[in-house]
Structure formats: structure tokens, C-alpha cells
Specification:
By secondary structure, the protein is an alpha/beta fold. The chain has helices at 38-46, 60-77, 79-91, 96-113, 119-130, 136-148, 154-167, 170-176, 185-192, 199-213, 224-233, 247-256, 261-268, 274-280, 286-291, 293-299, 303-314, 316-322, 326-335, 342-352, 385-399, 429-438, 449-456, 478-481, 521-526, and strands spanning 25-26, 32-35, 362-368, 402-408, 418-421, 464-469, 487-492, 498-499, 508-512. It is 48% helix and 8% strand. The longest helix has 18 residues, at 60-77.
């Protein structure tokens, strides 16, 4: 009898998240835990880490310290990999604060441990690469000085100078410069000394420094946006709403003056009515539109204008360029009181999940809704880790040829601790998420991953198991519970130190992040091709 040359033979594959072959410890809940190598641990932590925020099992301080330690270690062991990773973390994964912290720790570690002549150039490039918004040079300076003092190394200054030339414009100055910040634009210019790219930027840089210390300075003629803003600010406060009696003039005036919706609200010194919103909406960015749907409805914005907003929000190119997490569309859907946004948000969330693959065969999808997954990504508490797990789980279930989608926890509150969720063909994802929320599929309590596998996996029937989880299971061994001839894919949504399975080899693979990009690895691996880092 042949032992190897059988119809079930599959090529050996590898993926970048590598875990030890056998458990070397336990998870936070006491189940068998598998440590990962340094790069894998850093990656999973970074793509799920909202810096400074507590998670269920780790304080924000502990989590941030672990992140900084891992960056410093990889910066010395493999500086090229770490540089690529940090650039990707900011530009593609859209993790703003983690990338800024990572760049600072990268430079600090290399200044202490890498004397090579190319190091300063590389350090400068890393700093520049993670600064993608005009307030971020000041953010990096604030982080650096709070930890390492007022002496700013040359690579940091030069990287910040490069970013300032890219990012400092009249509009960004009006939007982001504020007396509430420790490092204002003038401070950044004074420390970094960037060389302006043209005469207009030269005039802007000089004016930024001048006006910081001499607020009454005249605005140079070259700075047309600042001049237009000053003209608007000179209007009599009692007559400012008269501007909106001429809609075309109002839109043009607000655009010339670089008025955001926040600055317009301040200029009016009162509530934003429909006319004000309709004047500023054409100038608003994608995220600003998404977060203000409730305000548009409450102000009574016309259906004609709302249709224009809807077209922008649902446009595939704008969805891709916005780099919004799928959970943001769910948050907007829950916040918007009007049904006129529902189909728009359905199309937008579908576009944001374009990478979810169509998997052949039968897939068991286990969605962890234990108490530790009921943890927010940020202090506003609007988005939970189990929201992300449900979004990805239901979306994958809808794309699979055949899928069994299950919410699981444990039996602490009675019952089996798991609930099967039907995914009808053609159902709106947002409607499915409403059913999930209203039907009691967010279970709570502990994480009995082994029990869920034993109850719902049918060996020989399911081709693969996909588990969306923080991996902090309570007992047993997840890896050994899934038969070795059944693929196990784990999507980690928290980035804790130990996971519930080995990873990176055979048919055991772990992914991470808050976007759909991780899903692209599954078809590669099942086609017998190795998966690599996404950068």
C-alpha cells in the first residue's frame, strides 16, 4: 500500500507567521500556548495594536512596552525587513500611531547598536516613510522627547524635514496647527530646518514661524488660502450665515479658504444647518463624510446632496484609497438614523472586503465571541474585536462554496456555548450582522475553542477550519484537536504573545490584522504556493 503517493497528497507550504512546533507554555486562560518568533509576534501585535489602549489581558503600558522591545530587536537583527514593515504598517495597514512609535524605536535602537555609514540614511528614510499626515511630525517629536529628552538626533530631524516638505501646505497648516499641541508647525520647522520645494512653500514656512511669535503679521500675497481664510474671519459674526444664501459662492469661498467642516462650525459659532453642510460637503474627505451621516440627516441635507455623498462613499476607487477598516462602515451604519445610507454602506463594506476569497469545498468558520473579544479597539468603545470577527466570519461564509458559521464561547451561561449561524445566499452583509447582534450570537464568557471544534468539526466532511479569535483558549490543545489532514487557519485579532496552534508550516497557518488583506494567503497556500509578508 502506498503511504505517500495518494490522492490526498498536497505540497508542503509555508507562511510568515511562525510558531513553535509544540506548546512551550500556556495562553492567558491556561490552554496550550505556542510562542512565535520575534517577527511573527511583532507583526501580529502591530496590526492589532491601538497604542496606549488596554486590552482584556494586557494593560496599554505593558502592550506598548512589548511592542517597543520587539521593534528594537528586529531593527538590529534585520533592519531592512523592519524598515519595509514600518512603511507598510503606516501606508497599507493604516496603523498610524504604532508606525510612528515603531519608527522612533527603530532609530533609537540603531543609533545605539549600528555604527555602519548607511545607517543614518536608512534611519532618515524610515522616519520619513511613516509620516503621512501633517500633524505626525509633531507627534513623533512629542513621543521622542517624552522618552529620550530634548536632544533630537540628525536622522530624526532630517526624516521629519523630508516629511514636512511633503506635508506642510496652507490647508494642512490651517487644519492641524493648534495651540493645544506641544509641538506646533513652527516648532517642527525650527527643529528640522526643511528646505522648501518652491517659493510658495518658502513663504509659507517663513510665515508659520513669524505668526507663531508675532500673531499680527501680514499674510504674504503668495499664500492665497491663508488670505482667503483671513477674509472670511473678518466677516461680521451676525452676517456669516448670509453666505449660504448663494450656494455656488459659498462652496467656492469655503474651498478657497481651506475650510473643513470643523472649522466651518467654529466660524459660524452655532449649529450647522442644511445649507452649511451642503456648502462644505463637496470639500469634505472620505472619512469626514463617513463619520457625519447622522449629522447630515439631523440637519435635513437634501436628497440630491445625499445622493452625491452616497456615490462617493460607494465608489470602489474611493473606498480603496480611503483604507478604512471594514468595521468603520459597520460603525457608520449603526450610527446613521436614515435608511437612505444603508445600500451605500452595504456597497462600501463589500468593496472593503474584496479580498475575501471564494473557497471550494466545505469550510467550518468559528467566530470567537468570548468575553475577551468584547474589547474595544479604542476608547470610544464603538468597535469591538468580536465585531471584526463577526464581519470577517460572515463575509467568508457568504463567499465559500459551502460553509458552517458558528459563534462560540463556552457553556458558562448555559447551553452548549456555541450557536450555528445561517448565511443565506444573497443576504446583505449588514443585515446579516444585524441578525447576529440581535439574535444573541455575541455570547460572552470563556473561550472553549477545543469544545467548539469537537462539537462542530466533522472529519472527512470539512476541508478546512477557519478560527477568528484572540487565541486565548481555556483548556486542551487546539492544534491536536483538528485532524492533521484538515487545514487549520487562525485569524488573530489581538496579538497576544502566545497562540493556540503551531503555525507557518504544513497546513497550520496564522494571519492577523483588521483588514481583509490576510485572506489573500488562503488561496495561495491551498494552491501549494508559499505565502510571504505583505510588504
Amino acid at each position: 500500500m502506498s503511504k505517500f503517493n495518494t490522492t490526498g497528497t498536497r505540497p508542503a507550504t509555508s507562511s510568515p507567521i511562525v510558531g513553535e512546533r509544540s506548546p512551550g507554555g500556556v495562553t492567558h486562560e491556561g490552554g496550550d500556548g505556542y510562542a512565535r518568533d520575534t517577527k511573527s509576534e511583532l507583526f501580529l501585535l502591530a496590526v492589532t495594536n491601538m497604542v496606549g489602549e488596554n486590552t482584556f489581558y494586557e494593560t496599554g503600558d505593558k502592550r506598548d512596552t512589548r511592542f517597543a522591545d520587539l521593534v528594537r530587536e528586529t531593527a538590529l537583527a534585520d533592519p531592512e525587513w523592519t524598515a519595509r514593515f514600518l512603511r507598510w504598517l503606516r501606508t497599507e495597514a493604516n496603523m498610524r500611531t504604532a508606525a510612528i512609535v515603531g519608527a522612533a524605536e527603530y532609530v533609537h535602537a540603531r543609533l545605539a547598536g549600528d555604527p555602519s555609514p548607511v545607517a543614518p540614511i536608512a534611519n532618515r528614510a524610515v522616519v520619513d516613510s511613516v509620516l503621512q499626515r501633517a500633524d505626525e511630525p509633531g507627534e513623533l517629536l512629542a513621543y521622542w522627547t517624552s522618552l529620550y529628552g530634548k536632544k533630537i538626533p540628525k536622522p530624526v530631524k532630517r526624516g521629519i524635514a523630508d516629511a514636512a516638505v511633503r506635508l506642510f501646505t496652507e490647508k494642512s497648516f490651517l487644519k492641524w496647527d493648534s495651540a493645544a499641541r506641544a509641538f506646533r508647525f513652527a516648532d517642527v520647522l525650527g527643529l528640522a530646518h526643511p528646505d522648501p520645494k518652491d517659493p510658495v512653500q518658502d513663504a509659507l514656512f517663513k510665515h508659520i514661524v513669524d505668526v507663531r511669535f508675532n500673531p499680527g503679521r501680514e499674510i504674504p500675497a503668495e499664500l492665497e488660502v491663508l488670505g482667503a481664510r483671513a477674509d472670511l474671519m473678518a466677516w461680521d459674526k451676525e452676517k456669516r450665515r448670509d453666505l449660504f444664501s448663494r450656494p455656488d459662492t459659498a462652496r467656492s469661498a469655503l474651498r478657497r479658504a481651506g475650510m473643513t467642516w470643523e472649522s466651518l462650525a467654529g466660524w459660524l459659532q452655532g449649529p450647522m444647518d442644511a445649507r452649511a453642510w451642503e456648502a462644505v460637503i463637496p470639500s469634505m474627505g472620505y472619512m469626514a463624510l463617513l463619520r457625519n451621516l447622522r449629522n447630515f440627516d439631523e440637519a435635513g441635507v437634501s436628497d440630491e446632496v445625499a445622493e452625491g455623498v452616497a456615490a462617493r462613499l460607494a465608489d470602489p476607487e474611493q473606498v480603496a484609497n480611503s483604507r478604512q477598516f471594514p468595521m468603520r462602515f459597520l460603525s457608520a451604519y449603526r450610527a446613521a438614523p436614515s435608511l437612505r445610507w444603508s445600500y451605500t454602506l452595504e456597497k462600501a463594506i463589500a468593496e472593503s472586503l474584496a479580498n475575501v476569497p471564494r473557497l471550494a469545498g466545505r469550510t467550518l468558520i468559528l467566530v470567537d465571541t468570548s468575553g475577551s473579544m468584547n474589547a474595544g479597539f479604542s476608547k470610544d468603545g464603538t468597535l469591538m474585536r468580536w465585531d471584526a470577527a463577526a464581519i470577517f466570519g460572515i463575509a467568508l461564509g457568504a463567499r465559500c462554496e459551502t460553509a458552517d458559521v458558528v459563534s462560540f464561547s463556552n457553556g458558562y451561561y448555559g447551553g452548549t456555548g456555541s450557536k450555528a449561524f445561517d448565511v443565506p445566499r444573497g443576504e446583505s452583509l449588514l443585515c446579516g450582522l444585524d441578525r447576529w447582534k440581535n439574535g444573541g450570537y455575541f455570547i460572552g464568557a470563556g473561550t472553549d475553542t477545543v469544545g467548539a471544534i469537537q462539537r462542530h468539526l466533522r472529519p472527512g466532511h470539512h476541508d478546512r477550519v477557519v478560527i477568528l479569535t484572540d487565541e486565548q483558549h481555556s483548556s486542551g490543545n487546539v492544534d491536536q484537536t483538528v485532524p492533521q489532514d484538515t487545514a487549520l487557519y487562525t485569524w488573530n485579532l489581538a496579538g497576544y504573545e502566545r497562540g493556540h496552534s503551531t503555525s507557518g508550516r504544513g497546513n497550520r497557518h496564522t494571519f492577523g490584522g483588521l483588514t481583509d488583506a490576510a485572506f489573500t494567503m488562503v488561496p495561495l497556500l491551498e494552491a501549494g504556493r508559499n505565502a510571504d509578508w505583505p510588504f
